[in-house]
Design a protein that fits this description.
The structure holds 3 protein chains of 3 kinds.
Chain A: H1 4-12, H2 16-40, H3 48-72, H4 80-103, H5 110-139, H6 144-162, H7 172-178, H8 205-223, H9 226-236, H10 238-243, H11 248-274, H12 284-297, H13 302-318, H14 323-340, H15 358-361
Helix pairs in contact in A: 2-8, 3-8, 3-11, 3-12, 3-13, 4-5, 4-6, 4-11, 5-11, 8-11, 9-11, 12-13
Chain B: H1 2-5, H2 9-18, E1 36-43, H3 50-69, E2 77-84, H4 89-101, E3 107-109, H5 114-126, E4 131-133, H6 140-143, E5 148-150, H7 155-169, E6 174-180, H8 184-200, E7 203-210, H9 218-226, E8 231-234, H10 238-250, E9 257-259, H11 266-272, E10 280-283, H12 292-304, H13 312-330, H14 336-344, E11 349-351, E12 354-356, E13 368-374, E14 377-384
Parallel strand pairs in B: 1-2, 1-3, 3-4, 4-5, 6-7, 6-8, 8-9, 9-10
Antiparallel strand pairs in B: 10-13, 11-12, 13-14
Helix pairs in contact in B: 3-13, 4-5, 7-8, 10-11, 13-14
Chain C: H1 2-32, H2 39-56, H3 68-92, H4 100-118, E1 129-130, E2 139-143, E3 146-149, H5 150-172, H6 174-184, H7 186-191, H8 196-222, E4 224-225, H9 231-247, H10 252-273, H11 278-292
Antiparallel strand pairs in C: 1-4, 2-3
Helix pairs in contact in C: 1-5, 1-6, 1-8, 1-9, 1-10, 2-3, 2-4, 2-8, 2-9, 3-8, 5-6, 5-8, 6-8, 9-10, 9-11, 10-11
Classes of the chains: A mainly alpha, B alpha/beta, C mainly alpha.
Amino acid sequence: MTTALSQRGQELAPTPIVAAPRFLAPLAAGVVLAILLELVLPSPQTNLKSKIFLDIGINVILAVSLNMVNGFTGQFSMGHAGFMAVGGYAAATITYYGSFALWGNPDTHGVSGNALFFLACLAAGLVAAALGYLVGLPSLRLRGDYLAIVTLGFGEIVRVLVQLTQPVLVTPERVHEVGFPGVLGYLGGALGFSGQYGIPTYTNIFWAYAFVTVTLVSAYRMKRSTWGRAFLAVRENEIAAEAMGVHTTKVKVRAFVVAAFFAGIAGSLYGHETGALNPATLGFMRSFDIIIMVVLGGMGSVSGSVVAAVILTILPEALRPVADYRMVVYALSLIVMMILRPQGIFGIREVWELGPFKRFFVEKR
Amino acid sequence: MLRNARALLIPAAALLFAGCPPSNDKGGGNAGGGDTILLGEYESMTGAEATFGESTHRGILLALEEINKAGGVKGKKVDVKNTDDQGKEQEAQNCVLRLCTEDKVTAILGEVASSRSIAGGRVAQKNGVPMVSPSSTNAAVTKVGDMIFRVCFIDDFQGFVGAKFAFENLKAKKVAILYDQTQAYSAGLREDFKKAFTGFGGAVVEDVPYNGGDTDFSPQLNKIKAASPDAVYVPGYYTEGGNIALQARKLGLTVPLIGGDGWDSPKLAEIAKDAIEGCYYSNHYSEEETRPEVQEFVKKFKEKNPGYPADGLAALGYDAAKLLCDALNRAASLSGKDIAAALAATKDFKGVTGVITIDKDRNAQKPAVMLAMKEGKPHYVATVAPQQ
Amino acid sequence: MSRILQTLLDSLTVGSLYGLIALGYTMVYGILQFINFAHSDIFMLGAWFSFELSKTFGWSKNPPPFWAAPLVLILAMTLCGAVGFTIERLAYKPLRKAPRLNVLITAIGVSLLIENVGQLPWALGTQPQSMPTLINDRVLFSILGVGFHLVDLLVIGVAFALMVVLQWLVYGTKLGLGMRAVSFDTKTASLMGINVDAVISFTFVTGSALAAAAGLLFALKYSGLKQSADSQWVLLGLKAFVAAVVGGIGNVRGAVLGGLMIGAIEQFGAAYVYAPLRDVYVFSVLILVLLVKPTGLLGKAVVEKV
């Protein structure tokens, strides 16, 4: 049923030809930037600083995607690492076993290999999104605390189920023998997707930052769209939002699915960076790490998550001499932050909406 | 539109911090300059298997002390940078990357746990830095690349040793297996034992997994008890091995337990107390062996580390360091490739843990010993030589 | 048949531990409506304090007297009660009026803090330790070939004794009446002259003391203590929380019932289906219960007024 109001709203919405550059331009700019970074910086396989820079990219994707659920929509999900794991494993299956099927060995294979990797990342996102839908639909009827525990439980279930699989296959003959979907039973089990070859290491600065661009542009555009307004409405007061016609469950599931999509991509990047995926490292401890980033940066602020991800990726390396105390400092900052400044560093606003930047970027009302 | 583009300001800003001059990343290893040769080591100094790291580290230190006293390598002093991977695979990779690219070490010693050796080995291989593992026994470790070596036997052999002992010495016809499915070491050793034991004509009546870190093994042990085995093979690490022994005895499972070199730690008896009496495990050496190298090592180690047992890991750490330095002496230069070539050519090196020859797979062919736990200490029972 | 009996015995033992820990969760949730994430760490501290106390008294080297275990129990319970009190005053009290999510995050922060301070070399250390034997375990009697060990029976006995004490406390004393009133309606309770702060503090102290007892019993039974930041503690606490939810959160008897149920599900699942999946069984039950009957077995539905 289209009311006069919604019809008017549709009339006012920008046409695709006007809207497209709003996200295509920053997207293109970001991809170009990613290419430049790739050419300028040394390989993360052989340079520690590059590796940290790469890790920052992956953590940014994770933090920003979690922010969509925890920040924009105010739903406390503690199982984000589970989506990362699912995405990572899906992508690894495609690149590793796909490499065997296409080229007979799981090394990196230049341009066609990178194309395979890109497809694998997309598949990772989609598989994770599907899981997000399955998890979100029943869970999002639950209240805050319970949702948190259930998502934690789901994350653990994913981890344990992955641990049931058989060790990774290492010969092309066996791979052909087992075929698809048989290989899904050979994801390395509790040892992780590793073995003597490991996952082909396609992740480099370009891929990471290309996906970072996509994530950031999507998150920010989403926040400023009707979807975003619906998310924020659900966050502020769910019952009032429902009363105003916002389909809260649909909105919450939507946030979950989109967040899971990006987490899946991050998982794929992560798996192809180190060449291994270990289910033990993708449990709730990892989810906590991401939560800390989102909370400290500000739940609802895209740039806040980015800043927090940058700081919290560099800090462990910088604080290596006093590594014991690093987690103590994190924990204390979390507590102090919640008591003194619960909105995090940026709250719900973006960095360019504050202070000295306000003049340039915020519209006068 | 301007606002939307701002979304990219942040990663661009992150670039600023990383705008450091690119360091050499040709991956050809780091030929040491100056008058000290810097080696790197990575092991778990903290975490669940911390005694592994402790022991190995002390063994390495003793070896380097002796080498430096005798004039060093190629006239230069040898120093080692120790890093702690906290028992985590991800950390192991970071440690090795740091050692290769920031500290620019000439070669690396580590790790003990096979899973972490595989993870760290990949990084070392990529960076062209040779790595010698003192005690990782899973076959996949050296398959990672031609820069990765080890001074211990591999689990194909260790599984065979355990199976032979169970079948011939303990006269066990039915054996149950309780293994750690989260560790490459344990999972691999289980396969090797199964193959060998069934090859001898024995039967594996139960084959049950647990997760590393578990504390409660009653469900698995119940299942095993119901199958009435003559012995139980427990190829895991000492932290769980001790608990398993305790709980097995509590449940009334009195048959002997057999373990692998992952049991080699003073903490095993501390955790298991009386329960470990009459259990056996395969190991790299026993301090009761009469060979002069062994007695020398045990004496010097105990002098330097009072109150600390000279266990297999310490001996292997010692051997690994000594073998590496021997290779460094023989190497044409201190570049990665030359060191690797020298390591590969090692023949009949007289180590504490046996005579070491590095074969074409970069593994060592050595005998293993079986130890029995009596009064809380491991005692020598027998030696099993590798069949060629 | 004897295997079933053995599994039943294990379920009872493990279930009593879960029940003890679940009581802390359920009491705090009943009063403050939030999940005290740091509760599993109080349990961990209980186990570690017991270890440190035993070591200080020299009982790792010399055989302990018969009053060793009760003394350590009382001391550990007191210490953990103090820790619980401190946490509540410093971290949770300032957030009484804040949204529930903030308190949850703070709880996570407290949990991480305790774990990582515990891991410091001068605190509890970075290595697993083994608990000195305070009670010489022996088989008291056997049925169907299943040995009933002293330690297991003590675990069950002490756990149930404490639960009975708590039951009396909540339903038979004025303080307990205050606790029930505050859990029903905080504002009205304060209007009726109940010192809400004191009641809340008392709840935390009691819950923490029970968790400490569970910690000591755990240490006596399993003897291997993992380092404080090991995920084992959080997982155990989480399963106890599931027990609280299954039994009906906010309900004391429910927590005990839930504990036994979860203990049984975990042990039978591990013994008869597949052992490494034990956590999955527990979490699946949680999800099932939350979808079918979110208030748990013994809980009552509360209508949320807008």
